[in-house]
## 1
Amino acid sequence: MCNVMWKQMLMAAVAIACTETAMAQVQISEEKVMQFEGKIPQQYADNSILIRTDNESNEIGIMCTRETSEGDDVKYKITDVLGKTLIDGEIAGCSENIHLTALPYGVYMLQVSHDDKVLARQRIIKQ
């Protein structure tokens, strides 16, 4: 079985349906795509960031690949569903472990950026 949530993103109607192989198909109206063309950030566009989550230890691991080296000033922040920044910092030495023990259970957003360019976004669910 496949559970699918309906979302509204950038005022575009997005219909998500599951196929027999449990893969999601996304359909966006052409009019809305034309309206927002070039403005929608593409997540993981350059594959320069790897993110792993560990629910047992309440940690998130962020690792830079060769495209973002130590001197590149890569930053991260974790926000709540209202957009309030709860944890932020810089990635030192191309990898960082973020401890989530101080955060209550809930849904959060991790964003990794470099020079105001978003390299990665990931939804974090702490249970």
## 2
Amino acid sequence: MEQTYLTIPDPRSCEVDIEKDIHVQYNKIKEKAERLSKVDEEIIDLIDLTDEEYDTVESYRDRFTEIRVIYEKYYNQQNETSSVVSNKCTPDNLQLPKLRLKEYDLMPRSWVAFWGQFCRIDEDESIRLEDKFQYLLSSLKTNTKARDIVESYPPSKENYSKVIEHLKSRFGRKDLLIEVYIRDLLALVNSKTNIKLSDLYEKLGSYLRALETLGVTTSNYAAMLYPVVESCLPVEILKAWDRHRLNREVKEDSIIKTEKVLENLVSFLRHEVEGEEHRVLAETAFGNGIKRKDTHKPVHKDEPTAATLIANSSAGENNCVFCDRSHPSQECRKISNMNYDDRKRQVMLKRCCLVCLKPGHMAKKCHSNVRCLICERRHYALLCPDLRKGNSSLPKRKVADEEAKSTEILLTSHSSEYEIYLKTIIVRLRHKGKEVCVRALMDDGSHRSYIEKSLVAELNLSPSGTEVLSQGLFGGGISPTAEHGRFSVTVESLDRKYSTSVALLDQPKICSTLPRIRDKTLLTKLASRGIVLTDVGRDTPPIRILLGADVLGSILTGRIEV
């Protein structure tokens, strides 16, 4: 055992290539030490050991104990440490670049970024104050106000704290910085340029984070920040936000805290920006950076209105085809000096539809419900082919069928000579969400305006007062005195371009049946001058409104065509 012990090298000076031999020698010593200890116990019971023999036995035990401690301490711990170190992926030769201090001009908007960088140096107690002074100089741009202030102090440790206090009081005032970022938010509100949503989101986030760094947190100042941030949004995003907010609110908790609303608004903007980026990515072709073309052609649909159903007049958003002014083409006065061929040629030159007079599609693809007052085909009266025929068509039709034409001429002549048309129009009455189109008689011989009692009940009108009066009749007669309720209602044109509130007195019946204009020749002449009547048709609905002299002055335009 003593020879084996002497062959074991010191583990502290071992190399890696002899580790295996060390383990083998240790196991041999361990096995011999166990056998020797067993034999010593048997001999002690049989004979008495002298002091010298007993010291020899103890010396071998002490040597083995020393070997075991050395082995376990150095080899086992090194194996465990090497296994842990081998699992880590931190190369010893990795060298990070040295950090360089960024230079600032130290204007109010850059103070937050500057102090975020320099505060680590200022709070580091291991750096001497003289060195901090030099670091401060290297962080400021030359030829700036802040650099001049720092250089005005001698670079000593006593002046370092004075310089820092001077800079904080000059550029780092909290109230000044808050005002600067609030003004930046207001500048976004008043910005007249179109800002991309992603850029707007980044600017808003930058300003809000800067305010939060200064202590203006959403929990304390959300009531002030929310309306400002909301006013920065474009109209389309603001509408989408309103829909999103209404969908999130529930009846049990309809009142959401203001700070939560601001957080939800910022989160909503983030999702909108991410969705926009995803949409752009989806529209981009694979690998070539070319956006995908839209293969679906938009379908132009004209919304039918009451004006197109009754009077074949609709308000267009495009400029006039004939004079390039901002009014519907079918209402242009210039067409009175143009014949049918010139009108059609002008529409075709502008590449507009011959049905609705709007650009972007052809007549065969038009979905408009326009109907001609003269021939009831799909076009406006100003483009009716019957306009170019004029009086020259009468002899041709008379030659074709003289007897039938003679009868038609007699009927037309009789109608034009003896039938009198009063001033009747179609108007829209509106009251508290209810609307109805009715026939109205314009009578400037009546001092007051009236409404049929059944129409009062239909619109659910409430009286604003009562009046007691009698009516003068033709021939000098006077009707019995009667009480009439006074009602206020909004009278509106069919194209919704004009509306006014009038006071009307109720009356059981306005007047007897009044005919509508059915003379195609008269309608053709009026259409050639750009005049489109509303009260036309074959049926004769009752007159339900009488507009007297008390309101006609504010309704009539004064335009007269002879």
## 3
Amino acid sequence: LPHPGETPAHIGGTTLFGDNVEDEWFIVYLVREITREFPGLAARIDDNDGEFLLIEAADFLPKWLNPENSENRVFFYKGELHIIPLSEPPEQDWDLSAPCPTIPQALALLSSRSEEFLAAEPIRAAVNKRLDGYPEKMEASLHRARCFLPAGIAAVLRQRPSLVAAAVQAFYLRDPADLRACRRPFRTFPAEQRVMALVTFTRCLYAQLVQQKFVPDRRSGYTLPSPSHPQYRAYELGMKLAHGFEILCSKSSKAAPDAKRNVLSGPLWERFLRSLKEKDYFKGEMEGSAKYLELLHMAEDHFQQSVATPESSVEVSPGDEILTLLQTTSIDLKELEREAACLPPEDDDSWLDITPDALDQMLKEARNESLPSTNEEQEKYDLETVAESMKAFVSKVSSHEGAEMPWSSDESHVTFDVDSFTKALDRILGADSEELDSDDLDEEEEFDFSDGDDEDLDAGNQRQDQKVSPEELVGSLKSYMNEMDRELAQTNVGKSFTTQKRGASSVEAATSASAGPDSGAEDAELAPVDVDMNLVANLLESYSAQAGLAGPTSNILQSMGLYLPENTDLTGSSSRATQ
């Protein structure tokens, strides 16, 4: 029995699900059903991403719950998801730095107050939606395909169909060292005796095998027919599977007769042998005597089984299992050929191809949104809305945890008070917000930007600790803006922006003429920039560059419920939309 405060007796395990996320969720389904069948059990489950159950329900989690404080808080109990909250101090002032509960503490709370810790309905619904359809969904995720295989592999898969996963993984994750076993005639599965067989994959394994481009080495004995051959796909799949099985067998300890010799020649064995001698394991026997050699062989066997491969007595490698099956299974080639003559049809693999519209529909369903039609998208398409949405996103104040979208399609629209914004600019800049040009700023408060000397620098340093009045601050800001405008007026930077089209009155024209030609040229260069028009033009240009794929523009706008219409003219849509 465990001591007080320790983790109580339990059953645990680790599963390698690879790239097939459906396998992971099937395990979650099994764990949930176990706690439903045995109400006294509580179970927690996580993966390399942490509490992935919370990730699935991220849109509905309470604000206090984050990856730092979620450990030992999420459990399946009596078939339902439970979340143990933080302790509740007065006035609900959550202490986000509170330590996570221990397993005994969490189990004690679940057993006594489980009703209080039942996860909110939206959270449970999000997780249960992911689990809907099991276990029937697993049958739908299988794919049966014909493969032209060596007879030995066909016989092995009849005994252990699950070994196909290890073979696909070995081929999919192969490296140059693995392929050394495939650059010679195959020792375990030669290409001479091959038969057609129906192999069952998961869809993930089948996709990994099909999508891999691979040309076999001529020395291996495996050749492929022309791609136009009706059985080309079966030949290709069989060749890839044969390479995977051969790689597994080449790594087996049974396939390496000198493996023991290699283990007993390393520094670890030398330290082990030296330790035996220091502890008088050989009992004073002369080195090389019969008794000495007997004790030495016993030590070698113990080292190899218990030290070099401590899990060898529990876990058998796929390569060892394949070789064992080949030794204990009789291969009847004629029977395999008779079965090949009446194989059932293979499954259709059209599910490998997905259109962009189907992908959008899948993403919409994952977000519980309906996919609007093309006409609806065009009706909702408004350049002003796009510009306001992007400005709202940029203006959104975010925390150190990352940027948040100002609104979603289900939330209310962000309000933007133009008058308040204009007044705020007036207070800061002292200018009309519609024309924030250097000509509108007071020249009498200009700052002299002559070359400063050491005395000016010292004086500036002395004034750093002094309080600056608002009037001085505004004057400095205007001076900086005046100087920047003068510098930019001598460049072509302004020509890269779209400017507002405005007409000057006769009084303004006369004033400009009296100020001299330089002033008129500067005023022409410093025409107000149309911010909204430049923003929309840049967004459309970025969206056009995506060429129908995902990109920053579509991702940000769609997160705020805005969908740009399909670009029917990739060469001129951006320029036409901005005119």
